[in-house]
Amino acid sequence: MNLKLKILESEDIFLGMEIARSHEGISISQRKYALDLRKKTGKLIYLSHTRLDIAFAVSLVSQYMHDPHQGHLDAVYKILRYLKQSAGKGLFFKKTRDRTVQVFTDADWAGSIDDRKSTSGYCTIVWGNLVT
């Protein structure tokens, strides 16, 4: 059996582990893996572009992504369970003779009970189809 040994450089990634050498010793971490996990949950924001049914909930929990409490995490898990049940949902644009563009907007002033910030929202309807 002929085995080849790879000599790791001062910083290298091996089997998903980041290995860094210095004069003080060797550091092994899974920083990239941890960041990738965070990005996967953060991708809910991109999914909400085609899943308007989760857009409000995702935007709400995203406000607490840097300091989530158990209630926020429970809400994210609920969104993920909902998505598992409704994976085929998305946008549908119907044919119509209506050639108008409508925009509706609303806001409240300091309406958040958590931080007294204002909340605003809008929707755009193009040719009878909701697009934003």
UniProtKB/TrEMBL annotation:
Biological source species: Lithospermum erythrorhizon (Purple gromwell)
Protein name: Mitochondrial protein
